[in-house]
Amino acid sequence: MVDHGVIKVLLVDDQPLLRMGFRLILEGEEDFHVVGEASDGNEAVRQVGELQPDVVLMDVRMPTMDGVEATRRISDAGSEARVIILTTFDLDEYAFSGLQAGASAFLLKDVAPVELVHAVRLVASGDAVVAPRVTQRLLETYVRGGSVPGQSPSPHRDPLLDDLTPRETEILTTIAEGLSNAEIAHKFFLSEATVKTHVRRILSKLQLRDRVQVVVYAYETGLVVPSNPDY
Fold first, then answer.
1. pTM, whole model, 2 decimals?
2. If you count Cβ atoms within 10 Å of the first and of the last residue's Cβ in the chain, which end, N or C, has fewer?
3. Could you give all domains of the chain from N- to C-terminal order, each with its CATH number?
């Protein structure tokens, strides 16, 4: 997805100062190129089609069209762009809805510069979940808690799960728990290359975009049942 090691980023926020701040941070890195800016969801959808960014930093609360609907349209259009939702609160219904709509991660707007840079690189690689513990807490609050309007607290089993091998089911569960490829490889005494192959097959069989979508899927189908971890 990333061409010649340069990550193309689109900034979407209705606050010009925030866009400028993110631009200054990202353009300080040799492997980032900010290809455009948008102030609402409509503009974001149009620019994703025109500019073909690798990563979109997407505010959730914007006029005209919010970031959740924009993310949904970008995902439904089959774009390869990965969306990172920007939010003010970690336990945010909008952030959860953004993940459901196809976002690959979410970040708080006051994220430290080094964490922002790291997160964009991770999402561009398609190989990691940003802040898995926070993502897990968000999902436990809204999916399993049934706190989102219209969201049933009772999970449904997806028949696509029957297409997974026993090993793939095991690995699916560990991805949903936030484990990295290296941690999964260590747990099951496999090579990282083998784990990556399993992950690709899981995504293909379940028709999911990336690892964060695996986490959302696992909670929604009840494959992962939240414990009560000490946060």
1. 0.82
2. C
3. 7-142 (3.40.50.2300), 155-220 (1.10.10.10)
